[in-house]
Amino acid sequence: MKPVISMVTLGVRDLQVATAFYQQGLGLPRLEFESEGVCFFQLAGAWLSLFPLEELAKDAGVDPAGSGFRAVSLAQNVASEAEVDEVLALAVRAGGTLVKPAQKVFWGGYSGYFADPDGHLWEVAFNPFMQVGPQV
Fold it and tell me: Is the pTM of this model over 0.85?
């Protein structure tokens, strides 16, 4: 198997609100697609898709009533501590929630967390030991 994640799909309660958060709020480039039931954003080396929560659960054949922490977070590595602060502030201005303010962390980097309007966790981190950008 080739070690690549090509797409991450987030189940969202309100596709319009989630799309506005990622497109207008965070400035992600949206793919114009001929379907009103899904939204795609191009990332460096992968795609982010937004799909109604009920439909995603139906597609996967699981109960959409799950709640609480699901042991998953998404992460973006950036080039500096200042950029971590900038991205967290941008997410909050866009309507996200600051979950953990940026701080020095045990592994030698600097990171913090925000949640999007649906509660999906995003870590924003500066890792001085890891190159920023897709590697394969």
Answer: no
